[in-house]
Amino acid sequence: MISKKTNLKNYNRIQAPRQIILPLDFGLMINENEPVRLLDAVLEELDYTELLHLYSPKGRKSAVSPVLFFKVFVFGMLEGIYSLRGLQRQCDVNLQYKWLLQSFRVPSHMAFGRFFKRLTVPVLNNLFAQFIKVLSEYDSITFEEAFIDGTKIEANANRYTFVWKKNVIKSLGKLKEKLSAVCQKLLALTGVDASALGDTALLDYLSKECRDSDIAFVHGTGKHKHPLQRIHEECEAVVEKRLEYEAHLGIMGERNSYSKTDNAATFMRMKEDHMGNGQLKPAYNVQFAVQSEYILGVGIFANPNDTRTLIPFLQQLEILHGRKIEHVVADAGYDSEENLAWLDRNGYLTVIKPKTYEVNKKRSYAEQIGRAENMQYDEAKNEYICAKGRRLRYAGTTTKKNSSGYMRESKVYQCSNCNYCSKRSECQRSVAEHGPMQSKRIFIADNYLKLQEKNMQLFSSPKGILLRINRSIQVEGSFGVMKEDFKYKRILRRGKENVYKELLMLAFGFNMRKLHNRIQSGRLGTRLFAVKEAC
């Protein structure tokens, strides 16, 4: 009879008697087509020398091999188990995890945490590059094209811990007024003009004066402070605030904001806006490069938009895999003169959607008479002719430098006189901004136009159409699988390095799941989805 006492922590003492069943090999209880078997076989082909070098041969040996830790981590990502306690729980109760651990003692969540902390980015990059090479032996990864896109993922940071650059700069400017007020008080008290001193030098001077005058600093209620002590405290507060604001700007760098709980996170406007008020949340811009439905690389950026991420991301991929991608396929968010010029200079073929591609299809675009594209061009005289028949003559060349240092040249064409033009309000929509005496000007970037024309030749070709369709299926599909199927919508770790490691681990799991699905569905070797013809 089973005991009814349930206050015992050891439940073995109250369970019904059971016969021990042989065999005890967990592998015999796992189906032949389970992804854990494929994962173990594929990851066994990697060289773990660099990973093992992270562990010293001296001292206490790790209870579980780092290789097994790595396999369990990747399998956890494949199964959608992202937390350390979740991994520990699965190793306790799940036969597949026990088989992967080779019957070693279940590690604690702290042991998993120590492994992840010790795992460095170079070692993980090395393993991922090997992993992609092994996958290319199983399936069609050829680096012939890469579909690139980005998404914003919320960081593990509190939502109201923002620091805004504009506010910091404004507050930093106000400190000058406060310091000036301190100098005025000192002048009124001692007759010393210290306006030429900086805040630190003034604080040193006040400290010396207080010591020389034997002024004892007092604090608390009922204590009477010496006027010089009050001035000293005000100056000290100014110095502390200046150092605080400068620290904020140092952390921020080129960004406009950051979070106090995760300094690497930047406040961005997310697509998931449940309140409908455009609330900014701390997030990372995550870039994926995908081919044959496999993730080839992951990029973590603080830029809210994708334009400035393309060049560093491609450089990162080239270093990671030691080879270039032939065709770069991306959406309109990556279209810029700087990007196209860099890609052309480095031998990449581009299938990048132009910014104005969708707008150009609309009739309203062709009716905008103020656009240079809708004006006549007199090539012999190098002049544009507006809808009213007036000529815009070449007025010179301007060069603008953007925040990344790229120099963009544009030719300026200007009309000699736009007064009394009946189409002026239609042609110059921003006439109120320029004023009534400003004549019509247009800017023509010849280099950008040539690069766009070269890009459009491949973009509009049958191959370009095939690649564009696959971009929307493969790379956008990878984000959909990650967010909806894997339920990965918020980063768990803090700091750019930890976030990168977490997402690269996720890429391991994603690719293993993709390989399993393609094997089971008989789709190995299928690199691109075919274009479906309309009936």
From TrEMBL:
Query: What is the designated name of this protein?
Result: IS1182 family transposase ISClbu1
Q: Which PANTHER family match?
A: TRANSPOSASE, TRANSPOSASE DDE DOMAIN-CONTAINING PROTEIN
- Indicate the segments forming the Transposase InsH N-terminal domain, all copies: 29-118
Q: What is the lineage of its organism?
A: unclassified sequences, metagenomes, ecological metagenomes
> Which residues does the UniProt record annotate as the domain Transposase DDE?
385-516
Source organism per UniProt: bioreactor metagenome
Q: Which InterPro entries match?
A: IS1182_transpos, Tnp_DDE_dom, Transposase_InsH_N
